[in-house]
Amino acid sequence: MDFAAKVSTTGQTPLTDFNVSFSSNLDEVLMEMNPAEDGTVSFSTDTLSAGSHLITATAQSPTGETASDNVWVGVCTWSTPELFDVDIEGSGWTVYGDGYWDNDGGTNGWLEMTGIEQSSAGKQGAIFNTTEKITPQDVHISFKIATGGGVSSSWEGGADGFAMSIIDAASITELESIVTTPASGGCLGYGVASPACGGLDITAFHIEFDTFPNNNNPISDPSPASDHIGVMLNGDAGTHHLYAALDDIEDLEWHDVTVEINGTTVRVTFDGNEVINGELPNLDFRGGYIGFSGTTGGKTNYHRFDELEITQQCLVQ
Predict the structure, then answer these.
(1) How many domains does the chain have?
(2) CA 119, CA 99: separation in Å to the nearest integer?
């Protein structure tokens, strides 16, 4: 990002004797320098942290007089899609629980939350980006999901489901305490708010893809029971603020999902069709760490994510 300013004076002091500093309300002092003979100063940086910055340029004369001006800029760290075609080890994506990176033996990779191996306690996996955050402003997110291929010892069909989450955690340590808390089964790897799933108080935004009709085990899903998409908040896996029933999605085929947050409006499309478009009057989207989670119980399924792309408007003023 490039910054420039120009110093002028009505006095006789050479402009090259002035001092100019650039600072950010988030990153403090960015640069100090003396102007050129015509009073111009400029510099470039690629180290601004994500968020909305108030950039202030302050000029100081040799005798201590100062003048300043400022501008707001927004910095977004997401610029290219995450295709996950290469092993994510060392890439900034951190694996928790039963999650893992997988591929088809060739050039196509994805994130897997659970696998289909049965476990007496169920599987619970998550994978989060722990190096970059989504900023607290409007955002457009797209990704692919695939689920199915599960096994059951006693009945047909698979379970349980998976979710994309954006968690407003102050640190990676806090994020990890949240991500590793949920129980398996109906908590879907994000539902930490209810006592049965974890009992934590968090600020977060979630899109869940639920393929098992829970009824107080440990939470309840909307009726009629079916595969569904839910817009969920703050680790609460039982309150569906917005909801859309889906046809059976357990075909282990890739499906396209987009999520748009514009103020208090949330819009979701599934395979190009709008399935949710509604208002959440109390939504205060705070951004945070983005990641994925999934769970199994007595039934299993693969729970896969791929081709994540995030777009935010970076110039905010």
Answers:
(1) 2
(2) 14
CATH (domain of 252): 2.60.120.200
134 and 15 in a common domain:
no
Question: Both tokens of residue 202?
Answer: 């968090």
Q: How far is CA 48 from the centre of its chain?
A: 19
pLDDT (mean) for 48-62 = 89
Q: What is the pTM of this model?
A: 0.77
Tell me the per-residue pLDDT of 190-233, one tens digit each, with 9 for 90 and over.
Answer: 999 988 888 899 999 999 999 988 777 667 777 666 799 999 99
**Chain-wide mean pLDDT for the chain?**
90
Residue-wise pLDDT tens digits, 175-194: 999 999 988 888 999 999 98
The sign of the CA dihedral 143, 144, 150, 155 is positive
| DSSP string across 143-169 | EEEEEE---BSSSSS---EEEEEEE--
In a domain, 286, yes or no: yes
Distance separating alpha carbons of residues 246 and 240, to the nearest angstrom: 15
Contact present, 22 and 3 (Cβ < 8 Å): yes
The rounded distance, in Å, linking the Cα atoms of 37 and 83 is 49
My answer on whether 69 and 105 are in the same domain is: no
Residue 129 belongs to some domain of the structure? yes
Q: Could you tell me if 60 and 127 lie in one domain?
A: no
168 with 219, same domain: the answer is yes
Q: Which two tokens stand for residue 146?
A: 């695939």
With contact defined as beta carbons under 8 Å apart, do 112 and 125 qualify? yes
Q: Indicate the residue type of 205.
A: F
